[in-house]
Automatic annotation (TrEMBL):
The keyword Electron transport does not apply. Its main location: cytoplasm. Binds 1 Mg(2+) ion per subunit. Belongs to the shikimate kinase family. Its cofactor is Mg(2+). Residues 1-22 are annotated as: Disordered. GO terms for cellular component: cytosol. GO terms for molecular function: ATP binding; magnesium ion binding; shikimate kinase activity. Keywords: Amino-acid biosynthesis, Aromatic amino acid biosynthesis, ATP-binding, Cytoplasm, Kinase, Magnesium, Metal-binding, Nucleotide-binding, Transferase. This is Shikimate kinase.
Length: 195
């Protein structure tokens, strides 16, 4: 792993209309998969990266929302973490069978089957410091996984728990602290060009 600060799509995996540009190249697998903690900017970076590559964005959280008709956080709260992770793993597998740019939910890497699938793909870890992640997610009631009496301590524990998994699956790591989306996309594009 290095460090630096379409679309042929399965018919059962919907794409977001605003993220489905005319493809320059057809892919049967993602060009790149984005992972990282809540608040790192995966969806924002994924949209911009998709536009830069003329590829669609497939976001696993949005696939869950499209199927359920409810926000991901509501589905998580209703099902509980274990059942949610099983549902998420199915949608991640569907997303990884598509072309384009794929963005995964922050906890998707907790599932062993997802990590095994990711070993076959180009994965970029959009990383963030605890302080910046706390700032970006504070007051966000749409993320039940972050609910806690002490959100800052909880977010730090989340990073400590998930960090080794992000490290395991990532081919490249990009920090998003104090950086514009354009800078992050440029880093990811540079990495992809080096492959």
């Amino acid at each position: 792993m290095t460090e630096s600060e379409t679309s042929t799509v399965a018919t059962d995996v919907p794409l977001l209309p605003e993220d489905n540009p005319a493809p320059a190249v057809c892919h049967t697998r993602p060009k790149v998969v984005l992972v990282g903690p809540p608040g790192a900017g995966k969806t924002t970076i994924g949209r911009r990266l998709g536009r830069a590559l003329s590829l669609p964005l497939v976001d696993s959280d949005q696939l869950i929302e499209q199927e359920s008709g409810r926000p991901c956080g509501s589905v998580f709260a209703e099902l509980g973490e274990q059942a949610f992770r099983e549902l998420e793993a199915r949608h991640v597998a569907d997303a990884l069978a598509t072309g384009g740019v794929v963005s995964l939910g922050g906890g998707a890497i907790l599932t062993e089957s997802t990590r095994a699938l990711l070993s076959q793909h180009t994965v970029v870890w959009i990383d963030i410091s605890a302080d910046e992640g706390i700032r970006r997610t504070s007051g966000d009631n749409s993320r039940p996984v972050l609910e806690s009496m002490d959100p800052a301590a909880h977010y730090r524990r989340l990073l400590d728990t998930r960090g080794p998994y992000y490290r395991e699956v990532a081919d490249h790591r990009v920090r998003s602290d104090r950086r514009t989306p354009q800078q992050i996309v440029a880093d990811v594009l540079s990495f992809l060009e080096s492959l």
